[in-house]
């Protein structure tokens, strides 16, 4: 669903041959795959929170069986590395550090995610060349993000008394700048990108939204049937006459520079 965001950022920052990219929270690896298709020289994906997504990224980017390779993707021993923790020296003695860091997972969906990202960004400082771009992402204004209303189901069902971890609040204009500032980064431009979430039907929408992990605490606090029921009701305003589900969203990205 965030492909338009990835494309906009890569186009703006001229990601291509020679780019050495460090992706924080790389998830299942789609953004890395797109960078590889642009010819990026070296790619490192870090996914600390979900072994399942990291496994999917490995399957997607590092297939065991030989197949025609995407330009720029050279396997675990070449241009692509996937890990659950920050790497050490990104390329070995005598070679340059990463020249782009991305954190494409939007902040604001989990308790403390902004603080956690700030700490992770600060820890990347020794790995990134000076003055290089770091990209942070957040939700746009609530009135322009239909999915934020649907995600509130997770917050309602997994409330603090039930040990929930989802805390949604309206996105603030300077959220990303605050995270960058705490990490010692200097803001250097921003942009907004329309990223509609579209699904073939309600069943597909349920599967897609539940796969994010944002509803796990709600399922634990209630049960799967209750979450499915309330999520289906929340999706009702976004159903089209043909049965498809369409939720317009806008995401904001910030480009900051390393000191």
Topology:
Layout: H1 3-12, E1 20-24, H2 30-37, E2 42-46, H3 51-61, E3 80-83, E4 100-107, H4 113-124, E5 133-139, H5 146-157, H6 175-182, E6 186-194, E7 197-199, H7 202-210, H8 216-221, H9 224-235, E8 245-247, E9 250-257
Parallel strand pairs: 1-2, 1-4, 2-3, 4-5
Antiparallel strand pairs: 5-9, 6-9, 7-8
Helix pairs in contact: 1-2, 4-6, 5-9
Protein name: SAM-dependent methyltransferase
Organism: Streptomyces rishiriensis
GO molecular function: methyltransferase activity
Explain what you see:
- With 259 residues, the chain is of the alpha/beta class.
- 34% of the residues lie in helices and 20% in strands.
- The chain is built from nine helices and nine strands.
- It is globular, with a radius of gyration of 19 Å.
- It starts with a helix and ends with a strand.
- Residues 58-68 have a biased composition (Basic and acidic residues).
- One of its GO terms (biological process) is methylation.
